[in-house]
Amino acid sequence: MHITYDRENDTAYVYLVAHIADGAAARQVVVDGIGADADVILDVDAEGRLLGIELIGARSALPAELLEQSSSAG
To answer: Domain total for the chain?
Structure first.
């Protein structure tokens, strides 16, 4: 698992696999109920396996310590 965090846009991505090839995420599922200020999108491959999790408004959904330890996106 690997996490990237874009501080400027307050978005984080949690990679559940080592690499996600272009087009591998065949479907995106939006999850409600995480928090008022966070949107969560699950990236799923054609076989239904979860590849990664995108969090928009990450500061409201993830612990600050986790975001501080993540690598910068960009």
So the answer is: 1
